[in-house]
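One record is kept unedited as follows:
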Amino acid sequence: MKSKKHGRKPDTPQSKHLLQQLARTPDKLSQKAFYNQYGALCFRRKNGGSEIEVLVITSRDSGRWIVPKGWPMRGKEPHEAAATEAWEEAGVRGRVRKMPIGRYTYMKNLEGGEVVPCVVEMFQVEVREIETQFKERGQRILEWVSPDEAARRVGEIELKSLLVNFKPWE
């Protein structure tokens, strides 16, 4: 809903929270101390057709909706790390593309209260296998939803854009 006076959306509690985080860490942002992470945009085709669903999961700490993602892994290429995160966090495996489909930024809350800026390179994973036993089972809620619904659920603006505009590579 746009404000008629200024022609922009009003600030939400989530956007205000992000601005507060950014205001507390200007030195990190100016030093370009962005941390890298790798994420998986996991999707499946509905009834073998062209319509897709994407996987969203909840974070373990806050319960907000996210996609599987994590830190670089020794001995693994970025796309392999993204696929490993999808398996560990959601129990899904499939065909992962080696080239990223995009990236988004967010502020990561570390243990001890430190907040750091992260850039998440996203990799497409066409899910072909779903297991019920996986590393973080019971620690997250998993849901398959339309790309538009996924975009409504996640908080990061750039991730919303990636989800809404996502078209699987063939």
